[in-house]
């Protein structure tokens, strides 16, 4: 999530700096390519939504021109970042040169990421954790036996000495 949030913030800043939402006739092809590459690298999809809730860029090229009104998008137009089920929304501001409270949200970057990669990684971590837990348990059991024998050795020697004394 943190990685997707960071990447979304960087993309939002680039969209703001290039005036992406103002220059629809002269779209920056390198920026569009970057959006598509990043979406593919996260096995996800990136949408850019304007103030009218119209999708102006879709990394899948399926929903451009359609409208996207979702609670996450509405909250992002209020200036909030939101991460929900690997859906990261990030506001795109009119300018970065003014104070934060004076900025106007001109659009929203919607980053939808597949959770399959995270699920696979989590399963791998889970397997590793199980193996580690079993190994630590066996190691602790072995250390307990060794430590118990070291602690009890003087008592065993004392018992043997007491037997010798009782025998005479």
Report on this model:
The protein is an alpha+beta fold and 168 residues long. It has helices at 2-17, 29-41, 71-77, 116-167, and strands at residues 44-50, 55-58, 82-84, 87-93, 105-113. The protein is rod-shaped and about 105 Å long. The relative contact order is 0.13.
For the biggest sheet, the summary is:
5 strands, antiparallel
Strand content bin: 15-25%
N→C terminal distance: 77 Å
Q: Tell me the radius of gyration.
A: 30 Å
Total helical segments: 4
Strand order of the largest sheet: 2-1-5-4-3
SSE run: HHEEHEEEH
Helix content: 40-55%
Which descriptor suits the 3D outline? Answer: rod-shaped
| Estimated structural class | alpha+beta
- In the predicted model, the low-confidence regions spanning at least 5 consecutive residues are none
Number of strands: 5
Mean pLDDT: 85
